[in-house]
């Protein structure tokens, strides 16, 4: 299988077949402005010294400071971070926020670290990169396995090193450390607003049967929001297992069960299924909210959802995209569907710089307007160019980036 960066570049190739952006511009977008690898030494609790490999990729800053999360995962490597940074550049342009694209990471299984080791690792990441970070330079945020608490450690470390007191260098912070109201559910909520704007156009019923892969911050919040809005969640999964009940799941009880047992499986009244089976369930809406490359040419033929809402980054490979398109399955692409997270990150940065604190209602109202606007514009672009939504989103984003780069 191709790595995520190869997938991202295949998407770029595809869009340039649909619309001519000029070879030089596309060639420029094939390379990040810089990709940085760092070694982070951490004194472990048992007294030994361990070196972790970390990354920051600054992809493109035509629209504003590099912006994007930091991922902690045992499989994280440079090609994944480069792809994620490229997608951030496209995503910020789609959301129409004055930010560029960046991404960071550390190759680590954070579940194997104690809290103090995790804090040392996070502060170590900032110590190695403080020169290139800053409110007007590069603004990181959470991603897979990085939490508001980690952002608070990082923001504190950055302030200690540089003396910058704006707190605008990291977003996704806890409220008491300068975070924004509503940043927690922002990705799931933004995804819901996008879905709700496009639902009728995509031929979905008013009440949908929804399947969600992933039960982290994004997946669990999405499950809650979709169910509060009258849709029925029929299956959810975490990294270990998946559960299914055609008549709907009681999410509150499932969360309690997961807290108690550490897993979703064996919840009474539901059937244990595999993650692969979950993706192939019959439903109105399938929401991949975990990792890249889960729908590929190996399983795309078997997908039975009517519409897919990509809350994860890069869950569908370019080959699978083509297969789904032929099967008439619409995909609401990641760069639109999950852009609510970075949009509220932008609100947080803006509040920090202006020394303001907005109410949750204000944040959600602004988010709703921006998501609706982005969704409508992308649908229009796709129709205008007789292509699917991902390409509509790429066309809109590349037009905006190119205009600034010129
Ligand atoms: N990690 C999130 C994403 O992939 C959020 C990035 C941010 O808030 O800067 O969009």
Describe this structure in words.
By secondary structure, the protein is an alpha/beta fold. The chain has two domains: 32-167, 3-Layer(aba) Sandwich (Rossmann fold); 186-337, NAD(P)-binding Rossmann-like Domain (Rossmann fold, 3-Layer(aba) Sandwich), CATH 3.40.50. It has helices spanning 4-18, 23-29, 78-95, 115-129, 148-162, 186-198, 217-228, 251-261, 275-279, 318-326, 334-337, 339-354, 360-384, 389-405, and strands spanning 34-43, 49-60, 66-73, 101-107, 138-142, 209-213, 232-237, 242-244, 271-273, 285-288, 307-309, 330-332. The strands form two sheets. A seven-stranded mixed β-sheet has the order 9-8-7-6-10-11-12, sandwiched between helices. Strand 7 (232-237) and strand 8 form a beta hairpin. Helix 1 (4-18) packs across helix 3. The longest helix is centred in the C-terminal third of the chain and has 25 residues, at 360-384. The two termini are 36 Å apart. The relative contact order is 0.14. Bound molecules: glutamic acid. Glutamic acid binds next to strand 3 and helix 12.
Question: What would the keywords be for this entry?
Answer:
5-stranded mixed sheet, Rossmann fold, 2 domains, binds glutamic acid, 406 residues, alpha/beta, 7-stranded mixed sheet, 14 helices
């Amino acid at each position: 299988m191709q790595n995520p960066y190869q997938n991202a570049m295949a998407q770029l190739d595809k869009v340039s077949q649909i619309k001519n952006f000029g070879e030089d511009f596309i060639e420029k977008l094939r390379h990040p402005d810089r990709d940085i690898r760092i070694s982070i030494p951490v004194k472990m609790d048992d007294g030994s010294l361990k070196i972790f490999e970390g990354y920051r990729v600054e992809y493109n800053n035509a629209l504003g400071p590099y912006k994007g999360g930091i991922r902690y995962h045992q499989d994280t490597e440079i090609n994944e971070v480069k792809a994620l940074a490229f997608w951030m550049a496209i995503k910020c342009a789609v959301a129409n926020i004055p930010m560029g694209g960046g991404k960071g990471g550390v190759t680590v299984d954070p579940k194997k670290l104690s809290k103090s080791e995790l804090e040392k690792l996070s502060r170590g990441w900032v110590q190695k990169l403080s020169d290139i970070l800053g409110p007007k330079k590069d603004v990181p945020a959470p991603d897979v396995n990085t939490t508001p608490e980690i952002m608070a450690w990082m923001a504190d470390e950055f302030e200690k090193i540089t003396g910058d007191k704006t707190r605008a260098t990291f977003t996704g912070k806890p409220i008491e450390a300068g975070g924004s109201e509503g940043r927690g559910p922002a990705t799931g909520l933004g995804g819901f607003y996008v879905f709700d704007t496009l639902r009728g156009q995509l031929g979905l019923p008013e009440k949908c049967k929804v399947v969600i892969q992933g039960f982290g911050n994004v997946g669990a919040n999405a499950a809650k929001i979709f169910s509060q809005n009258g849709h029925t969640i029929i299956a959810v999964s975490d990294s270990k297992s998946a559960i299914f009940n055609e008549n709907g799941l009681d999410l509150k009880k499932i969360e309690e069960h997961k807290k108690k047992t550490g897993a979703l499986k064996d919840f009474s009244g539901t059937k244990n299924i595999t993650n692969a089976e979950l993706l192939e369930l019959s439903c109105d809406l399938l929401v991949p909210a975990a990792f890249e490359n889960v729908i590929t040419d190996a399983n795309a033929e078997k997908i039975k959802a009517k519409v897919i809402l990509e809350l994860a980054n890069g869950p569908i490979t370019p080959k699978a995209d083509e297969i789904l398109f032929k099967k008439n399955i619409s995909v609401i692409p990641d760069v639109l569907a999950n852009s609510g997270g970075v949009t509220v990150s932008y609100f947080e940065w803006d509040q920090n710089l202006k020394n303001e604190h907005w109410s949750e209602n204000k944040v959600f109202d602004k988010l709703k307007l921006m998501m609706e606007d982005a969704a409508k514009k992308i649908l229009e672009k796709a129709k205008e160019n007789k292509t699917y939504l991902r390409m509509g989103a790429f066309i809109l984003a590349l037009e905006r980036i190119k205009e600034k780069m010129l």
